[in-house]
Amino acid sequence: MSQQFDVVVIGAGPGGYIAAIRAAQLGKKVACIDEWKNAKGGAAPGGTCTNVGCIPSKALLQSSEHYEHAAHHFADHGISVKGLSMDVAKMIARKDEVVKQNNDGILYLFKKNKVTFFHGRGSFVKAVEGGYEVKVSGDKEETITGQHVIVATGSNARPLPQAPFDEENILSNDGALRIGAAPKKLAVIGSGVIGLEMGSVWRRLGADVTILEGLPTFLGAVDEQIAKEAKKAFDKQGLKIELGVQVGDITTGKKGVSIAYKNAKGEDQKLDADKLIVSIGRVPNTNGLNPEAVGLQLDERGAIVVDGDCKSNLPNVWAVGDVVRGPMLAHKAEEEGVAVAERIAGQHGHVDFALVPWVIYTSPEIAWVGRTEQQLKADGVAYKAGTFPFMANGRARALGDTTGMVKFLADATTDEILGVHIVGPMASELIAEACVAMAFRASSEDIARICHAHPSLSESTKEAALAVDKRTLNF
Fold this sequence. Notes:
By secondary structure, this protein is α/β, with parallel strands linked by helices. The protein has three domains: 3-157 and 283-353, FAD/NAD(P)-binding domain (3-Layer(bba) Sandwich), CATH 3.50.50.60; 170-280, FAD/NAD(P)-binding domain (3-Layer(bba) Sandwich); 364-468, Enolase-like, domain 1. The protein is built from 13 helices and 21 strands. The chain has helices at residues 14-25, 47-52, 54-72, 88-112, 173-176, 193-204, 224-237, 330-344, 373-378, 394-399, 427-439, 444-448, 459-468, and strands at 3-10, 30-34, 116-128, 131-138, 141-151, 155-157, 170-171, 185-189, 208-212, 240-242, 246-253, 256-262, 268-273, 275-278, 282-284, 317-319, 358-360, 365-370, 383-389, 405-411, 417-424. The chain has a five-stranded mixed β-barrel with strand order 1-2-3-4-5. Strands 7-14-8-9-10 form a five-stranded parallel β-sheet. A five-stranded antiparallel β-sheet has the order 17-18-21-20-19, sandwiched between helices. The longest helix has 25 residues, at 88-112. The radius of gyration is 24 Å and the shape is globular.
């Protein structure tokens, strides 16, 4: 007889492992299934985020930023460096070690919270009395039963139809994180988060980087004023970004990759590069899940259809994260995982999708929460805006990083904060204050009247809030 569990979670990415831990904390008997393997074939829970996404990309961004500072900015501080070189293999090895620390941390958390971990691929077998039978296909095959099943199988990189990934010349996020040496010429298709972050890493290490973007606007989801400021910074750094292009044939050979495309004017162009990173979005991953065995409903994108509470069309089958609707963000998956575990336990889990922050970890960093100015205009909402530049912030000057600004958008009548947008140093950390403020429906005046430490970058947040009422103190 197969092992019986209250909750079986398929996938141990941010949504899955967090759901498993929270369900265990609430007294449920929990199993979590995940098939990721490390280089030695061992378990590597954490999903795309930990293994080939958020965590390794931040490790490479940190290493490459150190190199750029040593090469171009240390002299400003009186530090002279001679014979500077970059050992890419060591940088990649450090990245791999950071990933392993996170993998091991999740396995420890499973043990600590008494979650039973199965290393293999989870797939539906059939509905049975009191739940669902799930097969684990790994080094050994076994079947377990769960009263509730949470599907958290994540997403896969979307390939170009004319150029499937080979992870040698045409790279997904996975291959982009394993490049063995800085390419002389790097092409990137897609100017989203992955394209900009990976382009930034290899530009800092000496690559000539060209990013081709099909849309006519840069970072269309970002507040327009913030996107323009970011584009100015990237142009100055030497990232070549071409907008409104139409990509045609892509050919690979011994010398690398050749991309034919039409530019925004409709003129035929060709770009030759050593490597091509394709970052045109991601698709929900239900590979091998066998949803048809139980009648689990998918939409036209291949995502699992769920309601606002992450319930599927089947009783006691839930789904969270990238495999369902909504933004494909690790922290959104985590919040859904917690909420579903709490709903299973009879509590009232809640996720406010309007308050999910977004971050791009380039330099300058870009972060935002809430609505953009163009969205407020389109919705006919009367608003007030306030901005404050980092060039007027004492801490930013001391850091030597004064690019960008903080921008507040507040309701013209009530002064409630409707959106906060940041481009500049440590934007990823600064945005948290805005999330807290908006969760409590604060006004811009509330932030303007709170004491912020001096000198700190967070003073720019206070000053932008003051700017809504046209009363900045330092600009």
